[in-house]
């Protein structure tokens, strides 16, 4: 059991590192936020191919109450980790 838990934690850590690395490419101001228009590219770079409808659902999940045009890493990371784990 402990090995399964360790393997799962290692997988999650690796996924989160990949997500942060992909996010950082588009975080031009190094403030842990990216332009909302870049999210599709980031998601696709992680190996997902969402439809426009699925992409809008994901964006609705991570956008601020008052849309600013930017997505924060702290909202994007848990959502994208979940999406990638569901895909595995």
What level of helicity do the residues show? Answer: 55-70%
Order of strands side by side in the largest beta sheet?
Answer: 1-2
- Which architecture would the CATH scheme give at its second level? Orthogonal Bundle
Large-scale geometry: globular
Topology of this structure?
Elements: H1 2-26, E1 33-35, H2 39-45, H3 52-62, E2 70-72, H4 73-87
Helix pairs in contact: 1-2, 1-4
Q: What does this molecule look like?
A:
This is EF-hand domain-containing protein. InterPro entries: EF-hand-dom_pair, EF_hand_dom. There is one protein chain. With 88 residues, the protein is mainly alpha-helical. It has one domain (2-87): Recoverin, domain 1, CATH 1.10.238.10. The chain is 66% helix and 7% strand. It contains 4 helices and 2 strands, in the order αβααβα. The chain has helices at 2-26, 39-45, 52-62, 73-87, and strands at residues 33-35, 70-72. It has a two-stranded antiparallel sheet. Helix 1 packs across helix 2 (39-45) and helix 1 (2-26) crosses helix 4. The longest helix is centred in the N-terminal third of the chain and has 25 residues, at 2-26. The model has no long low-confidence stretch (mean pLDDT 92).
């Amino acid at each position: 059991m402990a090995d399964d838990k360790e393997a799962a934690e290692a997988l999650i850590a690796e996924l989160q590192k990949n997500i942060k690395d992909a996010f950082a490419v588009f975080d031009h101001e190094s403030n842990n936020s990216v332009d909302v228009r870049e999210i599709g590219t980031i998601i696709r770079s992680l190996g997902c191919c969402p439809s426009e409808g699925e992409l809008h659902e994901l964006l609705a999940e991570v956008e601020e109450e008052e849309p600013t045009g930017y997505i924060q890493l702290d909202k994007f990371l848990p959502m994208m980790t979940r999406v990638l784990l569901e895909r595995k």
